[in-house]
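With this grant's support, we have paired protein sequences with backbone structure tokens. One protein thus recorded is set out beneath this paragraph:

_____
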Amino acid sequence: MIVTYNWLKEFVDFEMTPEELGHRLTMAGLEVDNMEWIGAGLDSVVVARLISVDKHPNADKLTVCQVDNGRETVQVVCGAKNHKTGDKVALATVGTVLPGDFKIKKSKIRGMESFGMLCSEKELGLAENSDGIMILGEDCPLGGAVFDALGLKDVRYELGLTPNRPDCLSVLGVAREVAAMVGRPLNIHQPNLIEKGDNVAELASVTIEAPEACPRYAARLIRGVKVGPSPEWLVRKLESIGQRSVNNVVDVTNLILMELGHPLHAFDFQRLCEGRIVVKKVAGDEVFKTLDSAPRSLNKSDLVICDGQGPVALAGIMGGENSEVVPETVDILLESAYFDPLTIRRTSKRLNLRSEASHRFERGADVAMVPLALNKAAALIEQVAGGAVCRGMIDAYPRPVAERKIVIGIRRVNQILGLDLKMEDVHAHLGSIGIEAHPADENDEELLVASIPSYRPDLEREIDLIEEVARLNGYDNIPVTMPAGRMICHLPPRHLKEVTRLSNAAVAAGFREIVNYSFVAPGVWDRIGLEADDPRRQPVNILNPLTEDQSVMRTSLVPSLLETVARNLAYQNQDLRLFELRPVFLPQREDVLPMEKWRLCAVMCGRRAPEGWGNNDEKVDFYDLKGIAEEILELFNVEKVVWDGSVGEPFLHPGKSCTLKKKQGVLGTLGEVHPRVLGNYEIDQPVYLLDLDFDQLLEAAGGPYAFKSLSRFPQVSRDSAFLIDEDVPFSDVHEVLNKSCGKLVEDFILFDVYRGKGVPEGKKSLAIRVRYRSDDRTLKDEEIQKAHDKIVKTLVSRLGAEIR
């Protein structure tokens, strides 16, 4: 938004310097991005008169002018065509530096000396384009500075407004803030409108068929206008804020837009079928050509302004080519309306069509400004384009916008801002920007009820008003204090502590942690081979997924981890030790949130030791990962775990995997990933995977390890070799030994497995060492033999073992 110092002074009488005003605006929340001094350093551009204009002897398109600058007559070569003898012009004397760092020097052009330059508006920075040099009025004093003579010296402020301040998208809105700063009244000049002729209601009509999208629509009819160039003062005013002059009618609507912040639109009344205006939504898909001659595809969500035949404007955005004001226009129907911000924003964004009007309507215009903007524009059009304003104004307002009220507490204001303001202070601050407030109760000095003006759609809650009080009281006046608070130490919950402990243990074992998205594709369950009735195939669906590949919540960490392995292998990262410790999401009843269960999933593949001259190329196998699982079980003091090789997962290789069981339930699985699953992920080497239920692990965890004093008495070992059926797993042997060992057994270990010569087919030989020790005495041979015989007999009777 661009405003000027002089234009602001038309609304507020203040004495601040331009620099001080810029600082105060920024501190009030209206950040000044740029300040530009119009006419600064250009006092050497003076009013001069053309004494003679002669053709250049050596160039057809140049003229040689004798110019009186008030002190002397100088010769200037000019390339423009719009000047003649006797005209007053803007002469940049030798030494002048024009905008763009262009310095005027004495020069010779096609053999003729030139002592200066006759300037156009563009060259003086007053306009973006110009057709010739400036021709000044006869009232301009000869020899005086052009910018002083025309009253053009000014300061232009470019404001960087936040989207929540549509009230400041006008000179009036910024002036309101300035009035609040200096404590002076805001002067809003009422138009001197003279009505003549017929009543507008007899010639035109307005019907609103979509009041939710257009609560208010007003119109006036001006007859007998003459469309043409705008007067100099209007052109200069628009150019001061970077606006280009079009014609007198359009310039007036642009002036009101920038001054009052309310968009207007002028229709050629003779081109409106039946003289009717109908505001409605588009009935169906259709194409409409806007003022820029571009066809726009409309749909049922778009709001249009129609005449008796069809659309003539895209509401709140741009007019139509079929009703625009042209040089031949005589009668004008002037529109001033309020449109729903959401409706305008949706259409503008969909069509990628932005305009000054849509910029304001999208953020929220002032519904109360509709009649004032319309009357002021009608009076100005009558002044600069002639014609007569018909009597009366059509003001269709079928759905009045309700007044908003907000209660603000003085104690709350001081609590938030750290100030000690009284009710009178808050009342004065709010009143300075047009917010009327009164006590909620006659005897209550704590609460104020504020009536929010229609030009402040951003004020919705008490905290918004508190922010206004802080801004108007001055951010510089908020005391600087150190924040006070109590240091509270919270012990982390057990679950979080154990997650950290397990994660640290995995890292210590040489694994790297990864974090994948909790969203996966529905097809991942096929890739890991889950059965059709597997409950993990019933994931929680996401209502608004980013993509189809992230449309369900994962019920297993395995697919994501295998995708990570495949991606790393594709980049030649062959030796992997990865783990993920995250929740999975299991659905429950429709009215209950999904259950989150934490799981640990780890994978190994590649070399056992890092590549190097001192290490061999042995690959990891099942037992490497089993060792990691045993370390985890030991970390959590989980004892008496059954390693069941007869049960596994469909994504693991049968015979090369097992399930970890305990009385509380299944702890997890580990083993080599099934070749078919590896093929689905395009992995061409063995991968070993561990999948643990972390919640079950915590439930099975024992207490902290207790110290046990070392026995002072010697141990005795007894070795025995047993023939046992090949299909009997050692886990069965382990379970029998656990149950049959008495209190004298310290531990036992399988130290050899043999198949071959001397062992019958279908059998295997297991060599087991049992260690015996007592804490209070030295054991005798008889005691040891008796205990060992019991173990042997139990294995023979339970598992059909034979002693070798």
